[in-house]
Amino acid sequence: MCDRAAMSKPTPEPSLFIIFGGTGDLARRKLLPALARLAHEDQLGNCHVVGVTRETHYDDESYRAFVSDALDAAGLTEDQRGALCASRLHFQTIGPGTEADFKALGVRLAALEERHGLAQNRTFYLSLPPKAFQGTMEGLANVGLDESNGWTRLVVEKPFGRDLATAQELNAITHRCFREEQVYRIDHYLGKETVQNLLVFRFANTIFESMWNRERVESVMITVSESLGLGTRSGYYDGIGALRDMVQNHLTQLLTLVAMEPPSSFDAEAIRYEKIKVLKSMAPIDPSKVVRGQYDHGTIDGEKVPGYLEEEGVPMTSSTETFVAMQLEIDNWRWKGVPFYLRSGKRLAAKSSQIAVRFRDVPVSLFRSMGAKLDTTDVLIITLQPDEGFSMHLDVKAPGEPFRTKQIPLEFRYADRFEEIPPAYQTLLLNVLHGDQTLFVHADEVERSWHLYTPLLENPPIIHRYRAGSWGPKEAGHLGIPETDLWQVDGQ
To answer: With the C-alpha atoms ordered 222, 227, 233, 235, is the resulting torsion angle positive or negative?
Structure first.
């Protein structure tokens, strides 16, 4: 990885960062702590934060107290909390969202810019439920807040639609109000240092790029597993499921980074172009190569946990999947015939995000006459979380007699070489302030991804039960996914 000091960006231009949903869960847990860390590291520049909500009982002082409590709850130090000082923080109600309310917001923003010597550079962050996106975007555009004498940027949280039709509708609404170059669709997985390192790993190390094709790779498996259940998200999750919540966005983004061709340059347009090419090359998904599951009661870390249908707020008749595994094919020159496996689920045996690249076996075993049997082919494991890093599992001769081989990992861990990995939102918010769209999702990516998965949503495969604390339903073993430390078929 390149030296971070050498790659550091200049201080962002003076601006306003406006958070719609400024007292919501995402703002408390992620956005405000990320902005405070950036301020503490002198990377925020002359940026002022405006919290916007429908609530009317806040003013500047009470909102500043709210932010202070949120930063304390997020575990920030006193110095970090102090960096997002009171003079940077402001509040404005949007009331019921009438045209008069948005005009009042515009007046307040102009007043803050004049008072603090800011250019008309504005970021509008929609930390809102998807149903509020349209009204907010149209409200901004109707009073001219979609443009300014500086730059205007719009950040939109996922989900970007529920299927192809709703994604197309949302993109059409967005483009009526904002230009695509103004829009930053945020997928926090793309902000993880280890995800960004996929590009460096592939394209800065010729030893791997030369093997990154159908001639050398046998299969690729991408796993994002969670040991937790629903928590307080039952109202949201039961209408979404694992396919919409994880596969269509996070796992598919990882797939495009693993499978993409080398971009012509390291900039947003070139990288997005190659990712879209991968999505356009995806073969239609064979429903027989998709397994959906729903967790039953079980034991995790010695604690008994309820099944999905026993979770508070979940209907007993729910057919929402909490697990999905599938095999995909990419019909292009590099990857034709190489299966890509995607797998994600809740209440699995461990929390982990991992990419396993399995290389083809040797054509002839030279050691068969010695009685040795190679247990597995060589495997590259890229761990995105936790314990970020990668390991290359190679066969070596075990000492002594009889002659036998053992697979040993050559390992790298970020924690061994770097003091701290910035949280994903910290990276992404800084990129927004710099106008760098490399780590954000283009409208075409959204629609091509939904085009791939919508047939499964319209005709979903049957649900299989799996025990909480396992690696999913035993039926997933029929997909032929090679076993790794994060893949063992549950015998139940």
So the answer is: positive
Q: For residue 402, what are the CA distances in angstroms to 343, 362, 367, 374?
A: 39, 22, 12, 14
Q: Where are the beta strands (DSSP E) in 100-251?
A: 122-126, 152-157, 183-186, 217-225
Residues 80 and 208 placed together within one structural domain of the fold = no
Which band of pLDDT confidence, cut at 50, 70 and 90, is reported for residue 148? very high
Confidence of residue 5 (pLDDT cuts 50, 70, 90): very low
69 and 197 both lie in a single domain: no
State whether 146 and 277 are in the same domain.
no
What is the pTM for the complete model shown?
A: 0.89
250 is a catalytic site residue: yes
In a shared domain, residues 390 and 338: yes
DSSP string, 250-266: IIHHHHHHHHPPPPSSS
Tell me, yes or no, whether 89 lies in a domain. yes
Q: How far, rounded to the nearest angstrom, does the alpha carbon of residue 57 sit from its chain's CA centroid?
A: 34
Q: Which of 133, 157, 181 is the last residue of a domain?
A: 157
User: CB count, 10 Å around CB of 93?
Assistant: 18
Task: Determine which one of 48, 90, 188, 250 is catalytic.
Answer: 250
DSSP 248: I
Residue 9: the pLDDT is 67
Residues 146, 196 share a domain: no
- Is residue 76 in a domain? yes
Question: Which strand (E) or helix (H) includes residue 342?
Answer: strand 340-345
Q: Domain boundary at 157, 181, 201, which?
A: 157
List the CATH number of the domain containing 44.
Answer: 3.40.50.720
Mean pLDDT lowest among 21-25, 237-241, 409-413: 409-413
For residue 234, is pLDDT > 90?
A: no
Query: And the tokens for 10?
Result: 């200049």
Higher pLDDT, 478 or 36: 36
Task: Name which of 16, 85, 90 is nearest 53 in CA terms.
Answer: 90
Domain that includes residue 373, residue range: 190-424+443-479
Does residue 2 have a pLDDT over 70?
A: no
Provide the number of structural domains found in the chain: 2
Question: Rounded distance, CA 145 to CA 442, Å?
Answer: 22
The number of angstroms, rounded, from the C-alpha of 292 to the middle of its chain's C-alpha atoms is 21
The secondary element (H helix, E strand) that includes residue 458 is helix 443-458
Distance CA 484, CA 475 (A): 17
For the segment 206-223, what is each residue's pLDDT rounded down to a tens digit? 888 888 999 999 999 999
User: Which H or E element spans position 298?
Assistant: strand 298-300
The sheet carrying 405-413 orders its strands as: 405-413, 389-397, 379-385, 352-359, 217-225, 340-345, 323-328, 290-296, 463-467
